[in-house]
């Protein structure tokens, strides 16, 4: 991101002493790290807490202990600034089935109090390979098309930090190529956590 002075502003996602358990032993404990740029991959066996960790980083789930902060330079972001600094896509991200792809993205932009340029929404949908389905109802989408829409949603506010949970799930070869290209572009401009 460029500041008003034309210099590059670094964003950082910082996890401090995170722990989480639901019932039983913790999924993870005392986990601390920082992500500033490039690509960070979270891996582990099924049930090890990968999705839980990503949801905590995106502030969709509270940690049991610890905290997550987002910084622009040395300044910690809060409230709306923090919300728009992190883009999220996960398999449980749902859309309105009776709305078209365009209507869904327009709704989410407006619900966030942001203008919804038709050209910008069309560009985002074309970028993820949904150009021919912009005005189709989402309820008629295949699972792969819904996953493409989730990826478009994650980039809806040009967040410098993207958190993508299982982004390739349901994508065909063409969709995975699109995802690889998008991740490559985004990691040069900010941080991507997969």
Task: List the defining traits of the structure above.
4-stranded antiparallel sheet, 194 residues, 6 helices, alpha/beta
Total E-strand runs: 8
Strand order, sheet with most strands: 2-1-4-5
Q: DSSP helix count? A: 6
Termini Cα gap: 21 Å
Largest sheet descriptor: 4 strands, antiparallel
Overall residue-averaged pLDDT value: 93
Q: What radius of gyration results from the CA coordinates?
A: 17 Å
Class by alpha and beta content: alpha/beta
Strand content: 15-25%
Helix content: 25-40%
Uncertain runs with pLDDT below 50, 5 residues or more?
A: 1-7
Form type: globular
Order of helices and strands: EEEHEEHEHHHEHE
What does this structure look like?
This protein is of the alpha/beta class and 194 residues long. Helix content is 34%, strand content 22%. The protein is built from six helices and eight strands, in the order E-E-E-H-E-E-H-E-H-H-H-E-H-E. The chain has helices spanning 50-57, 79-85, 101-111, 118-127, 143-154, 173-189; strands spanning 11-20, 28-35, 38-40, 65-72, 75-77, 86-89, 161-164, 191-193. Strands 2-1-4-5 form a four-stranded antiparallel β-sheet. The chain has a four-stranded parallel β-sheet with strand order 3-8-7-6. A hairpin with a 7-residue loop joins strand 1 and strand 2 (28-35). Helix 3 packs across helix 4.
Write the layout of secondary structure elements.
Blueprint: E1 11-20, E2 28-35, E3 38-40, H1 50-57, E4 65-72, E5 75-77, H2 79-85, E6 86-89, H3 101-111, H4 118-127, H5 143-154, E7 161-164, H6 173-189, E8 191-193
Helix pairs in contact: 3-4
């Amino acid at each position: 991101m460029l500041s008003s002075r034309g210099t590059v502003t670094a964003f950082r996602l910082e996890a401090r002493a995170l722990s989480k358990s639901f019932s039983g032993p913790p999924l993870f404990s005392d986990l601390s790290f920082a992500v500033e740029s490039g690509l960070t991959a979270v891996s582990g066996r099924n049930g090890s807490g990968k999705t839980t960790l990503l949801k905590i980083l995106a502030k969709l789930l509270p940690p049991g202990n610890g905290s997550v902060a987002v910084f622009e330079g040395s300044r910690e972001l809060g409230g709306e600034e923090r919300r728009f600094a992190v883009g999220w896509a996960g398999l449980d991200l749902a859309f309105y089935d009776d709305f078209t792809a365009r209507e869904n993205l327009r709704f989410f932009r407006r619900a966030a109090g942001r203008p919804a340029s038709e050209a910008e929404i069309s560009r985002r949908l074309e970028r993820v390979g949904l150009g021919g389905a912009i005005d189709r109802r989402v309820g008629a989408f295949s699972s792969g098309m819904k996953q493409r829409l989730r990826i478009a949603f994650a980039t809806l506010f040009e967040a410098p930090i993207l958190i993508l949970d299982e982004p390739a799930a349901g994508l065909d070869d063409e969709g995975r190529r699109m995802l690889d290209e998008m991740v490559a572009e985004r990691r040069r401009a900010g941080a991507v956590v997969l």
